[in-house]
Specification:
2 helices; rod-shaped; about 55 residues; mainly alpha
């Protein structure tokens, strides 16, 4: 029988939390990068295709 938590179980759980946090930060960074690239390549000015459909 096992009473208590082993060190390896705690290390595995801590590593899981660290990798999850890293994934979250990387996802947020990619989100900003993708949004900025869309702004650069498809600017929202009054001359674009989207402006023709959105103005009355």
């Amino acid at each position: 029988m096992r009473f208590g938590v082993r060190w390896t179980d705690r290390a595995r759980q801590a590593l899981s939390y660290l990798l999850g946090a890293f994934g979250l930060v990387a996802g947020l960074a990619w989100n900003d990068a993708i949004q900025e690239s869309i702004r650069v390549f498809f600017p929202l000015d009054n001359k674009g295709l989207l402006a023709n459909f959105s103005t009355p």
